[in-house]
Amino acid sequence: MGFRRRLRRQPPAPQAAPAPPPAPAGPPAALVLDALGRKCPIPIIMLAERIREVQLGQIIAVQADDVAARTDIPAWCRMKSQTFVREEALPQGGWAFHVRRDY
Amino acid sequence: MLLDEARARVAASLGVRPDELSFTTSGTQAVHLAVLGALAARRRAGRHLVVGAVEHSSVLHAAELHEREGGTVTAVPVDLHGRVDPAEFAAALRHDTALACLQSANHEVGTVQPVEEVAEACRAAGVPLFTDAAQSAGRMPLPAGWSLLAASAHKFGGPPGTGLLVVRKGTRWRSPLPADEREGGRVPGFPGVPAALATAAALEAHTAEFAADAPRLRELVDRIRARLPELVADVEIVGDPVRRLPHLVTFSFLYVEGEAIITELDRLGFEVSSGSSCTADTLRPSHVLEAMGVITHGNVRVSLPRGATTADVDRFLAVLPDTVSRLRKSAGVT
């Protein structure tokens, strides 16, 4: 039902902008990982292993369709001092989670 | 007669009047009757319901039913520790709010909620507050200020199949079920007298023993909270470090699948739980962990039994580093 979909904590937007534009914001991903069809924690294991392949300040994107990734990837970023940039719905289902490598 | 005695003893343990207390067939039934009965009685005031985002599923399921029947529901978010902000809760109350719900303490992460501050805001807004006290009844004194309360006997060592519903004097309540005169017109059918007596005895005993044991359990949990991050990399202890149930601690290991670690710890002789206690079979991540914004996998909840010792805790801490590193290796973490 309606309210249950709103229970999930919304990851804080890094830019306190009024109404984020619907079009993809920010720089494109330097590396895209395909974790579609993989259950958590596999998407964040892949993210943790490969984030060093992008330069500091660059974006790595993880595509995943396990709903747990919507919570786990922002939480991983918080624990690992990386920046969760945004979540983008994919046309084929699932999401692309954009993460900026900060250290 | 025996039922009156059981009621008087339970009421005395909880600090309520006997005529405010009804025995139900479970904690879940007590929650459903409290929420739906308060909403029914306040229908003229409005059909808006406010709930904390990390309430037990029995509260959320009652809220879903209310929403399906045309009511509206606002879920108040929680912080990283799983606690609602009283000001944010107060801001969710509207002129058409019929009822607000806030648990005494969270069932998955042990965080104690600011019930008294929220009750104050509810009183000012003229909105009754329902408190699900299943986690804290028999373990901590009840907070003040609520209008309706539910608890579950087996959570304090009483018989399964018995719950407690308290509706304070002056609180409007109307049965959402067909009329029945038992239990002050609040619960259908005659309560099981032996179960009610057993509930009274269990609540008295648990309240006394737990009060004596709580400081020790709190220290043991502090020991786990302090030692675990030193022993295992990439672990997050979740829940409020201070404002919490004394005996419960929850933590999550990055890169470890939830069920795998539960199975492994069980094999080593430790009975622990994971994720959402009541909806673990739905494949949905725990709504509590989601609402907090903490990782939802590799989650372990330890509920220390009365009499747990430092040696037990140390034995548990000793097996964790190896267990976690084995599971991480098998998941392909390098």
Looking at the structure, the CATH topology of one domain in chain A is Translation Initiation Factor IF3
Helix content, binned percent of chain B: 40-55%
Question: What fraction strand of chain B?
Answer: 5-15%
The total beta strand count of chain B reads 10
Q: How would the global form of chain B be characterised?
A: globular
Strand order of the largest sheet of chain B: 1-7-6-5-4-2-3
Tell me roughly what share of residues is in helical segments of chain A: 10-25%
What is the class of one domain in chain A in the CATH system?
A: Alpha Beta
The strands making up the biggest β-sheet of chain A line up spatially as 1-2-4-3
Protein name (chain A): UPF0033 domain-containing protein
Family (chain A): Belongs to the sulfur carrier protein TusA family.
Pfam family, one (chain A): TusA
Organism (chain A): Actinocorallia libanotica
Task: Provide an overview of this structure.
- The complex is a heterodimer of chains A (103) and B (334).
- Chain A is α+β, with helices and mostly antiparallel strands and 103 residues long.
- Helices cover 23% and strands 23% of the residues of chain A.
- Chain A has a domain at 31-100: 2-Layer Sandwich (Translation Initiation Factor IF3), CATH 3.30.110.
- The radius of gyration of chain A is 13 Å and the shape is globular.
- The relative contact order of chain A is 0.22.
- Chain B has ten helices and ten strands.
- Chain B has helices at residues 2-14, 27-41, 57-68, 86-92, 115-125, 182-185, 193-231, 258-267, 287-292, 310-330; strands at residues 21-24, 48-52, 72-76, 97-101, 129-132, 148-152, 163-167, 235-238, 248-253, 299-303.
- In chain B, strands 1-7-6-5-4-2-3 form a seven-stranded mixed sheet, with helices on both faces. A three-stranded antiparallel sheet of chain B has the order 8-9-10.
- In chain B, helix 5 links the parallel strand 4 (97-101) and strand 5 (129-132).
- In chain B, helix 1 packs parallel to helix 7 (193-231) and helix 4 (86-92) packs parallel to helix 5.
- The longest helix of chain B has 39 residues, at 193-231.
- The N and C termini of chain B lie far apart (67 Å).
- Chain A binds chain B through residues 1-4, 6-9, 11, 39-42, 44-45, 48-49, 67-68, 70-72, 74-76, 78-79, and chain B through 51, 53, 60, 63-64, 67-68, 73-75, 77-78, 234, 236, 254-257, 284-285, 287, 289-298, 331-334.
